[in-house]
Protein 1
Amino acid sequence: MKTYILQRFIQMIIVMVVVMLVSFIIVELPPGDFLTTLREQLTEQNVDPKVIDSTVEMYRARYGLGENWFIRFGKWAWSLMKGDMGYSMQHNRPASELMGERLSLTIWISIATLIFMFVVAVPIGMLSAIKQYSAWDHSFTFLALLGVSVPSFITALVFLLLSVTLLGATTVAGLFSPEYVTAEWSWAKFVDMLKHVWIILFIVGLGDTAGTIRVMRARMLDTLGEPYIDTARMKGLSGAKVYFRHALRVAINPIISSIGLRFPQIISGSTIVAIVLTLPLIGPLLLDALLGEDVYLACSILVVLTLALVIGNFLADLALAWLDPRIRFEN
Amino acid sequence: MNSAPDSEKVLDIRNLQVSFRSIAGATRAVNGVSLDVRSGEIVGLVGESGCGKSVTIRSIVGLVPSPPALFEDGEIWLRTRRGMTETLSLHKNTKALRQIRGRDVSMIFQEPMRSVHPMMTIGKQITEGILEHEVVDPAEAYDRTVEMLDLVGLPNPAAQMNRYAHELSGGMRQRALIALALVCHPQLLLADEPTTALDVTIQAQILELIRDLRDRMRMSVLLITHNMGVVANLADRISVMYLGRIMETGTVEEIFKEPAHPYTHGLLASMPSLFSQPKTRLQSLRGVVPELAMVPKGCVFADRCPHVMPKCDETPPVIELRSDHSAACWLYADVGEPRGAPAVADQPSLPGDRPPLDSPPRVETIPLAGSEPAADTARAAPAGSEVAQLQIESVALHYPILRGLLRRQVGTVRAVDGVDLTIRRGETLGLVGESGCGKTSVGRLVARLVEPTAGHIRFGAGGGLEEITHISQKEMKRVRRSMGMVFQDPLSSLNARMNIRNIVGEPLMLHQLAKGRAVDDRVGELLEMVGLRAAHQSRFPHAFSGGQRQRIAIARALATEPSFLVADEPVSALDVSVQAQILNLLLTLQQQLNLSMLFIAHDIAVVRHVSDRIAVMYLGKIVELGEARAICVRPVHPYTEALLASIPLPMPGLETLREMPKGDLPDPANPPAGCRFHTRCPYSQPVCEREEPPLRPLAGDADHFGACHFQDELQLQGVEEIGELGASQ
Ligand code: SF4
Ligand code: SF4
């Protein structure tokens, strides 16, 4: 078990280093010196030349520009780790400032979506399998098919349309009511967010939830056909014990191991929804940065998202090892 | 509802009828089965696959999902702690059913590998059963579980409590499952093919355990199996089932010595036994078990019965031949005495003597061209026997075991570890051993499907021997023309999307032996040669039964007129009657075409039946090699003796009292030092743990090789030559 965790941990570090290297190469690729560009930009904006000089000098020192590449990489990586995400050309602000709130919101919404998906999909999928071919099964099989096939931005658009035409909403949806959008974080703002967030969870999570229902149903059906379920039944166990104690823990395995993979899906899914619903998430910012060739910003976002993904994967692996003795004993 | 049966009976099934509904309509899987099990008795329910055994036994405890099953008629009375209970009526009352399961009746299943929960410790799984039925504190449940694990012969039972399924071998899992089933002391154990998935030596151990526990725990057992040998060894009474009906019921002696029903005859005659005349046709039943929807009216066996008569259009009554022996056949319709036909009761019976049926056995779907292999040609040395067809020398196949992130090599599986073999022209060499012994790898090495780690393979395609160990794929293609292959699972080895003409004709086209119409003609010829219709060329594999698919695979293997055939477990996936047909076919073809053959199988009785010489393999090495009969009559290696002793003989009373091999097969990645068999060998001496015995000829018999230090001193027991008598009658 210990070696297993250690292995996974080392794997995680390796992935992180590779991602950072790739990001770094992308940052370094564009022709022309970053500092020249910066100076030009600041001059165009009529900034005080002294300030320009000092800003440029500060970046030169911080990123070790002019030194050889691995020192530059080291400095860049180090500053990233300290939370300095670099400077956005497009927005003229440090990247971390731009990301700040959006990043944490994105992560929270993703986690909430995952939980939503789990809580909704696992019981529904399980019951569909237990009551195979029942009305319940047929309706959810149909709904899940619908959920898988309808892209989330359509759901978002439909939702927009409904809220405008039926509910007469004037503000287009968002994460907050208009009065809270710029307000400081407070209890009231939090409550306001909760009121809005479930719709977002629903829209973002619908596709994944529907997919998970299908996976859960299929896995549960497979598991219920296994001979060890007959063994459990022949002990005289009640249905609930057979389903929960014996079948569920085997059937749920692939869903847990797929958590790590769902994370990027949710983020890309939420990006489209966030664009449609104008949500302050990280996805639209990344898209913006990519379109505007804002390399520092884009790479920082990529690195941070990768980190989140890799950690998510690591946690999923741990959960799996804890649940499944076969993995625990492999090493 | 009728009255409860007398209390001597633990189980009484009366006229059970179960149908399955599907879109195609209802088919009746169980059609009026009556069966009882008395106190302390082991009853065997035998029959080929798809005859309704499993549905019958699962109906007792409500394990048949309904729908789609429909229980149309019948009663199942079971002795429970509350007296006789009718369980069919409980199917909707899950609570009452649950109280019976595990407490009054338990069940063990066919696949021990998959019947233990993979993510729960053995201990937890067993104590769960106790806690479900009894009010005991967990500590007591724990102690009782350890005790039970000890009783079923698991070594170090306390340590097993915390182990998981994947840490146990198949045999150990089946022991754990038996412990699980018996921990609440039920009166009846239902065993659904409990040893089918296990190796023969392990099967012997489990059968022994069931018999032993029956006595110790004073329970009854209802055992279903397709293997006549298993019931002969274990059961007190037997019911033979075919297509949802009981054909014959009787004590084990009567069923084997005086079988009355033509189906029972057929089953017994189909089995190659250790006593039958080798290389002779088995008296197989013709045809195959029909689909349930195609069951004949009247007697369900009518389309395969050699004695069928007009009367058989009506359902035959169950006729009492004497107390405790009954058969459902019109042959016995008058006074219960056999009338005319198989006059079986009065024949002198010898063990292994199958009373001849009085009409010539109609064996194949189409009568084969060519003659039956005559017994004496078979016994004489094969023609041109001194010319080698295939020679392998010190061949090894090692696989690295890779672990971890960097796929580090942590060990080596020595699947084949230095094997020498020669197959002469026209000879059949049988290669026998348990799973993991490397026999399949040898077959794959010979066909160059895997690259050997070391050694030489020489093959005589046309003229003399030619080294093929490392020749290129292009050259190998030429060699393969002379080398056919047949595998165990005919379905997966045939491309489902190709029709039969293309499957069988593919080698012809590949080797440019024929084109266009010529392919059709040759394929037609080949199909007829293997007993299929030439007209079936345009069909696809799924339209054929398992036995027919194996015929197709054989036709394909023979398309290029090879002189050599590798047959890897060609019959082990087939029902007994079909197995006999395929063995007959192989024998006939071998004689007709003067084929040399490497015949690989786990069943030494089957191997003995078709082979001239036998090589016995254990953990990657050949431990004994010699003439087929000599090996079976006077084995010189203790492992061969163990294999022979483990085969359940279809001969009640002739129980083997020989010492069974202990324990499990060792891990092939880590074979024991010295003699590889020493961990299980009853004759092991200190020297065996140190020195590895080489394969060397016996003193005074240059054709018989053994790899045991004491092969010249030990007096090992084989099987006697009773078959000579039986066959010569
Ligand atoms: S009833 Fe007729 S067909 Fe059936 S087994 Fe007897 S003789 Fe054969
Ligand atoms: S060498 Fe020793 S351990 Fe090996 S088979 Fe012979 S007696 Fe048994």
Note: Residues 335-385, 722-729 of chain B have pLDDT under 50 and may be disordered.
Protein 2
Amino acid sequence: MAKLLIVDDESDIREFARNFFKKRKIDVFVASGGRQALEIISQEKPDLVLLDVRMEEITGIEVLRQLRQANLNVKVVMVSGVEDEETIKEANALGVLGYIHKPFILEELEKIVLAQLNS
Amino acid sequence: MDIRVAISNTAIFIAVYSFVLGIPVWIGFKFLGKGAWLLPIGLMALFATLGPFIYLYVQKQAEDKLLQEQRRYQATLRQASAGMGKIKDLKKLLNMIVYVLTHAIQIEHASIYIHDKEKKQYFLGAIKRKSGHKQFLDKISENSSLIRYLLDDKNLVIYEEFKQKSQDFKGLTLGQVEEDISSLDGELIAPIFIEGSIIAIIVMGKKESGKIYTQDDISVFGILANQTALAIENAKFYEDMKLTQEQLFKAEKMATIGTMADGLSHQINNRFHALGFIAGDALDTIHLNQKEALSSEKSKEVMAELERALVRVQENVTQGGEIVQGLLKYTRKGETGFAAVDVDAVFKAALEMTQFKIKTQQLKIIREYDVATIPKIKANFTQVQEVFFNLIDNGYDAMMQRKDERREPDYQPTLIVRVFKEDGYVEIIFEDNGVGVKDEDMSKMFTPFFTTKLSSKKGTGLGLYVIRKIIEENHGGRVEMVSKYMHGTQMKLRLPIAIG
Ligand SMILES: Nc1ncnc2c1ncn2[C@@H]1O[C@H](COP(=O)(O)OP(=O)(O)OP(=O)(O)O)[C@@H](O)[C@H]1O
Ligand SMILES: [Mg+2]
């Protein structure tokens, strides 16, 4: 089974995204913050990570940086809200598959996730 | 000089000199006969020397009697004009001028008209009427004959004297000017000049005694007019200052809203995002289960899922509403009055507002006060809320800066708030363990636009300036800042206790 990690500090996002992807025979993990995300990534080696940019504890960009430092070459899609150009450039430099801008509907996300997991 | 004074002076002069010269001659003829003139001449010399002194003395006594009343009101006017400069409120100043005039000179009425450049009118600023029933005008046009006459003549106009003028004045019909004066019921009209233009006009009615205005009156009004001009300018200057100050307050508020906008749009966006996920998953569940008839077991499961989704929808809607409410609380002008205000309630409201700008979860906030025992303060809720907001905001920035710069392993950003009663005041202290202030920056803290926050998003440098204005000028309290570099900062506020 493909493994998907959803990193978001909003509990509703974690809960309903997990429900949704579970129904698609995907093994879903969730993390509410950067530290937890790093732990799960190193243990579970997910096939795809959906990473929220703006989080309380450590930012998505910081998580990405630490991932790359630890040589964890996991596929990452950034979920961004109202971020500025600079943040986007920084993330690109660290190597991400792409961006999805909030708010978006689950069907869009489904397409992206399925495309990435099947490739 | 008053005509009565002139007459009495002449009478005194004649009396004194016929006495001085008459006595020696009379003595010479009566007692000593011809030839024995030595004594009378000696006496003459003596009296002639004394004469002027006697004359001056008697004259002064008489004059004093006559002028006593006039001197008294002139002294009052002088005193009043010296005090005028201290009044900052224009309306109050004008009221004081007309009050003093009517009472010191005992006239029927006095009024003062103030120039409004834009409307090209002089508007009635204050009026005091003791007697007489005539209507008053509420404005005088810039183009009236009276104003044009005053601009040219540049002097006080006394109605009685003016009526005797017969020749027309530079194309102005004096009759028209006279009409203007009489429609104001004015006995004396004093234009107040500043740099060639008339900024105000004082209109005075008849003296209640029926006497006419004298040259002495006029010279006193000359002084009064000068003082009035300065005082009015002064008061207007303060009003302008108040206006720019309000604009400054507003600028600070707008800047804060600017920095809040980022946090706000993030939060509102997150609500929509969550709603999208909840609805998407619920729809997905419906679609997946639509195709076949459901067992009662399965339909219960689906119903539970949908119920959960709708509960979360409601919750997110409520949160969204709260965000908007929070913003409104800040942007609304707020009540203007002062009331007995609960410090803890203000603190909570301020904290709620800060959520949109900073991450208060990163701070340990300790409220070291007993809500039940601290007295209420006499304050304007909205303004004090803004003060607390700025203090929390500054503390947060200082602590985050220390956290980022020092990276001390067990650093815990902590904000302590203390409230207690002291010397009949309520003392409120915000203490943080942030970066503190460098000694060389200490003196600039309350200066408008001083900021050490470089990032373009933060720092207008108006926070502390506005705090001081609100606390010290609006509330009659005090603000003090005590800080130690790399240790922390204490902001001490002192606010009056609400009575009753
Ligand atoms: N609690 C504090 N600890 C350390 N420094 C402070 C504290 N409060 C204020 N300062 C210093 O005083 C300066 C002026 O503060 P002020 O609140 O007037 O403006 P600002 O915070 O820079 O800008 P704004 O309030 O508009 O965001 C700050 O830039 C900071 O250097
Ligand atoms: Mg500030």
Note: The helical segments of chain A are 11-22, 34-44, 60-69, 85-93, 106-118.
